[in-house]
């Protein structure tokens, strides 16, 4: 009986020595004899204080980005509503010209040619205009074309001018093919009178002759309000677009910084392992011995 007890005690000392003599592995003693592969967790590197600080800053930036993105989406919905009000009132060409101008803060009245090219006429003519408005069209005649202008006027804004061009005391534009006893047809470009600097548009464009025949007084009022609201909303939308682009790049930089910091910690850990005693336990060597083809983890 004594012999049996002695054998068991000696065996305990032998096996405990085998389990605890292998130091520096960072895993619980005795696991070296485990037949399955194991090692330090890759994600444990994220417990580093520096990495946690970077992740907190990124989280704050992401929340701010999400709030601004939500605001931008709301502005986009509003602008679509304003656009519908404008298109419901103005003729198609007029609405497109207004929205294009509103969408470009670099545009002004001098961005457009002042001359209406032959054949580029408005289908609306001067029907329904007051005498004062008809006289107003004549002020567009003789304007300098301005070769530096970038955009041509839309034909809807090229309004025929009815006045005594040939000096015979009669007002009557020539019909197609007619050359005598009439006044040559001339057109006045009204668009530069509505296109303002900084991409703004005079809301008075929501009046005859540029509105649809189906447009009511309420539609015209909605159109005028929509032009003003669209301009102000588009300005905030553009500012947010710039901010969001910068914030998106900041978020990418946080990701790059996290990758660099993880690589630095991994490299630092490898360097510390190389400085250990050459007889220290080799975890990936043990893996291969057990039949596992495993590369070192971050902590090995």
What does this structure look like?
The protein is an all-alpha fold and 300 residues long. Among the domains are: 62-106 and 222-260; 109-194, no CATH class. Helix content is 49%, strand content 3%. It has 7 helices and 2 strands; from the N terminus they run ααααββααα. The chain has helices at residues 2-20, 49-89, 92-102, 131-138, 191-194, 217-274, 283-289; strands spanning 158-161, 186-189. A two-stranded antiparallel ribbon has the order 1-2. α2 (49-89) runs antiparallel to α3 (92-102) and α2 (49-89) packs antiparallel against α6 (217-274). The radius of gyration is 40 Å and the shape is elongated. It starts with a helix and ends in an 11-residue tail after the last helix. The model is unreliable at 4-11, 13-26 and 119-148 (pLDDT under 50).
The run of helices and strands is HHHHEEHHH
Strand order of the largest sheet: 1-2
Number of strands: 2
Secondary structure: helix percent? 40-55%
Q: Residue ranges: pLDDT <50 for 5 or more in a row?
A: 4-11, 13-26, 119-148
Proportion in β-strands: under 5%
Shape: elongated
User: For this entry, what is the oligomeric state of its chains?
Assistant: single chain
How far apart lie the N and C ends?
A: 46 Å
Instruction: Report the C-alpha radius of gyration, rounded.
Output: 40 Å
Major sheet, described briefly? 2 strands, antiparallel
């Amino acid at each position: 009986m004594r012999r049996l007890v002695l054998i068991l005690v000696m065996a305990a000392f032998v096996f405990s020595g085998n389990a605890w003599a292998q130091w520096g592995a960072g895993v619980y003693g005795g696991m070296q004899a485990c037949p399955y592969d194991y090692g330090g967790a890759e994600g444990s590197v994220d417990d580093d204080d520096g990495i946690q600080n970077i992740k907190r800053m990124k989280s704050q930036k992401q929340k701010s980005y999400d709030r601004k993105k939500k605001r931008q989406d709301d502005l986009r919905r509003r602008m679509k509503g304003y656009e519908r009000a404008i298109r419901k009132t103005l003729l198609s060409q007029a609405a497109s010209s207004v929205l294009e101008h509103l969408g470009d803060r670099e545009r002004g009245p001098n961005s457009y040619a002042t001359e209406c090219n032959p054949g580029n006429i408005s289908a609306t003519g001067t029907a329904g205009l007051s005498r004062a408005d008809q006289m107003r069209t004549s002020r567009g005649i003789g304007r300098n074309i301005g070769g530096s202008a970038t955009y041509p006027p839309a034909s809807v804004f090229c309004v025929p001018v009815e006045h005594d061009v040939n000096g015979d005391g009669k007002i009557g534009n020539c019909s197609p093919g007619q050359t005598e006893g009439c006044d040559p047809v001339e057109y006045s470009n009204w668009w530069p009178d509505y296109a303002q600097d900084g991409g703004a548009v005079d809301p008075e464009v929501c009046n005859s002759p540029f509105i649809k025949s189906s447009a009511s007084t309420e539609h015209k009022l909605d159109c005028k309000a929509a032009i003003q609201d669209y301009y102000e909303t588009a300005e905030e939308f553009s500012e947010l677009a710039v901010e969001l682009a910068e914030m998106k790049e900041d978020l990418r930089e946080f990701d790059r910084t996290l990758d660099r910091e993880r690589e630095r910690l991994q490299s630092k850990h490898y360097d510390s392992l190389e400085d250990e005693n050459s007889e220290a336990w080799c975890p990936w060597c043990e893996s291969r011995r057990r039949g596992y083809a495993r590369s070192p983890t971050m902590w090995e």
